[in-house]
Design brief:
8-stranded mixed β-sheet; alpha/beta; binds adenosine-5'-diphosphate; two-stranded antiparallel ribbon; globular; binds ligand VHF
Length: 265
């Protein structure tokens, strides 16, 4: 894999990378993420960040130890946390003289040709102007109804769909695990890392379960769904541990870390 094969990339960061198990915001990680993405952008790459964390961050602001079950309470937390999340990103990126712009999306945007076209125009214009789009689902209004789907439910799939729309060379997913394992490593000490996946088989699907981290939502199952979208588009996805965002630079250089999901050539 050569450096040019990551010319345009989408990076997805999960709540478990941004908030520690005790619920505290990991400011140094966010700072290193900003430094890494700024340096890529300033070296000619097109970079899009898809970030979770609005609800996770709001839990700390409100001194709550777990997500409330009521949807309106989750919407209110998303509204509170998204503003704070963006203020942390704005400050972190500003330190590296990097402009960012907030983009909040719902499932409808991908369903409606006009809205989809508008989204692509906005993203392309930001990239052309060296602005890093910082995308999250618009959780304040993306609530599924009986007869209409507004919500992605997880940002892994959203990130893969964005990557597809902008013809990205690949998606890098940052999480709290080093790789995809043969089973959930938090539950099975004998789980082994899988470094290369060519297709999402039933066996791979069976290895992945939901989240056992305190604040993540989708677990590995939604990351596999994202990888499947990337593979269907003859693109690639790499899953790495988000604790050291500088690893993104290694991935872009073609170093084999984490789990690479790519078709066999
Ligand atoms: N086969 C597997 N390999 C690695 N992690 C797994 C696997 N199955 C389930 N998981 C769980 O998925 C979690 C990561 O997903 P999640 O908590 O949603 O993180 P994020 O916030 O990064 O999206 C891991 O912490 C782990 O508990
Ligand atoms: N849009 C939500 C993200 C929820 C989500 O998918 O979280 P994660 O499993 O950590 O990627 C938020 O910002 O809280």
């Amino acid at each position: 894999m050569s450096e040019s094969s990551w010319q345009r990339l989408v990076v997805k960061v999960g709540t478990s990378t941004l908030v520690d198990p005790a619920g505290h915001i990991k400011y140094p990680v966010i700072n290193r993420l900003a430094q890494t993405l700024s340096s890529l952008q300033q070296n000619g790459h097109h970079v899009i960040l898809v970030t979770s964390g609005a609800v996770g961050i709001a839990l700390e602001q409100m001194s709550l130890s777990q997500r409330p079950s009521s949807i309106p309470h989750q919407q209110a937390l998303a509204a509170l946390g998204q503003g704070y999340l963006m203020s942390i990103y704005n400050q972190s990126f500003a330190f590296y003289h990097q402009l960012t712009g907030q983009v909040l999306l719902t499932y409808d945007v991908f369903d409606n040709p006009k809205m989809r076209h508008n989204m692509i125009n906005a993203l392309e214009t930001m990239l052309a102007q060296h602005i890093i789009p910082v995308i999250n689902e618009n959780d304040v209004i993306a609530v599924d109804e009986m007869d209409h789907r507004h919500s992605f439910g997880d940002n892994d799939k959203l990130a893969a769909m964005v990557a597809q729309e902008v013809n990205a060379d690949g998606l890098i997913v940052l999480s709290d695990v080093d790789a995809l394992y043969t089973s959930n490593p938090a539950l099975n000490a004998d789980a082994k890392p899988i470094h290369r996946v060519y297709e999402i088989t039933d066996a791979i699907r069976c290895s992945a379960t939901g989240s056992t981290s305190n604040f993540g939502t989708g677990g590995m199952a939604t990351k596999l769904a994202a990888a499947e979208i990337m593979l269907l588009n003859h693109s690639k996805m790499v899953l790495i541990n988000g604790d050291n965002p500088a690893l993104i630079l290694d991935v872009v250089k073609g170093k084999q870390i984490g789990t690479l999901f790519e078709e066999e050539k």
